[in-house]
């Protein structure tokens, strides 16, 4: 059980890094357009949806 958890924890930063790198470089995302935590959460949610749709479409 512990070895499985360690593998997941070790691989997690690589998975997250690729997603943010794709948003920054390929989607040209530099900063949030809205102010406020709720609005930023919605904006990031839309970015995540767009990223997932692009993954499924390719």
Taking all Cα atoms into account, the compactness measure Rg is: 14 Å
Poorly predicted ranges: none
Largest sheet: none
User: Helical content, roughly?
Assistant: over 70%
Total strands: the figure is: 0
Q: Give the mean pLDDT.
A: 82
Number of helices: 2
Global morphology: extended
How would you describe this structure in keywords?
single chain, 58 residues, mainly alpha, 79% helix, 0% strand, extended
Question: Explain this structure to me?
Answer:
Helices cover 79% and strands 0% of the residues. By secondary structure, it is an all-alpha fold. The longest helix has 25 residues. It is extended, with a radius of gyration of 14 Å. The mean pLDDT is 82.
What secondary-structure arrangement, pairings included, does this model have?
Blueprint: H1 2-26, H2 37-57
Task: Write a brief structural summary.
The protein has helices at 2-26, 37-57.
